[in-house]
TrEMBL record:
Substrates-to-products reaction catalysed: shikimate + ATP = 3-phosphoshikimate + ADP + H(+)
Record keywords: Amino-acid biosynthesis, Aromatic amino acid biosynthesis, ATP-binding, Cytoplasm, Kinase, Magnesium, Metal-binding, Nucleotide-binding, Transferase
Protein name per its UniProtKB record: Shikimate kinase
Binding residues annotated for ATP, in chain numbering: A10, S11, G12, K13, T14, S15, R119
Cofactor binding summary note: Binds 1 Mg(2+) ion per subunit.
UniProt-annotated binding residues for substrate: D32, R56, G79, R141
GO biological process, one term: aromatic amino acid family biosynthetic process
Enzyme class per UniProt: transferase
Gene responsible for this protein: aroK
Pathway where this protein functions: Metabolic intermediate biosynthesis; chorismate biosynthesis; chorismate from D-erythrose 4-phosphate and phosphoenolpyruvate: step 5/7
PANTHER family, A to Z: SHIKIMATE KINASE, SHIKIMATE KINASE 1, CHLOROPLASTIC
Family matches, as HAMAP family: Shikimate_kinase (MF_00109)
Amino acid sequence: MKVVLVGYMASGKTSLGKLLAKELAIEFIDLDEYIEQEQQKSVKAIFAEKGEIYFRSIESKMLAKVLEEHEDCILSTGGGTPCYSNNMDQILEKSDHSIYLQLPISTLVERISEEKVKRPLVSHIGADDLPEFIGKHLFERRPFYTRAKHTLNCNEKDLETLANEVKSLLH
Ligand SMILES: Nc1ncnc2c1ncn2[C@@H]1O[C@H](COP(=O)(O)OP(=O)(O)O)[C@@H](O)[C@H]1O
Ligand SMILES: O=C(O)C1=C[C@@H](OP(=O)(O)O)[C@@H](O)[C@H](O)C1
Ligand SMILES: [Mg+2]
């Protein structure tokens, strides 16, 4: 069974994916970590040294590779993955379940402001401008995320609760 998690930065894709894979005893793949291993560089360094277009091209290729080569896995994507190239079509075609982790802007702002450094798209944005940036960005990206097979309301739920809710979707 192939399950793909999508959603905005800091929606919990990596954390929930890890927990789910452990509980379901299947392989966990985080697309950003996969790219970092393949490129031998952090996502931050790839953005800084080669630019976003290069990152999006690698991201799309690595997504296709993971979807092709892995039968049973939980795949946590990056926040931008479904929004470029034909990535969301690929996800819908090649996975059994795709799940959009939905959170209110206020929670995303809180989480991102604590972890801006490792996220190159927001690292340069000041605290005052962050809510407007995230609001606009999510408005642009939401149409891609909502194509996922399921939407999971993650507001004020801990990881264990979310893992149980995902498991009940996987039939
Ligand atoms: N359900 C949750 N409740 C509270 N904090 C969470 C939850 N899920 C994730 N987090 C926290 O939010 C931050 C971003 O999580 P992460 O898994 O890196 O998100 P993503 O991979 O979507 O960017 C981390 O600090 C993580 O511990
Ligand atoms: O939203 C985005 O475009 C990005 C999200 C990041 O992943 P997370 O969503 O896990 O932070 C990472 O892929 C890169 O920094 C770009
Ligand atoms: Mg992540």
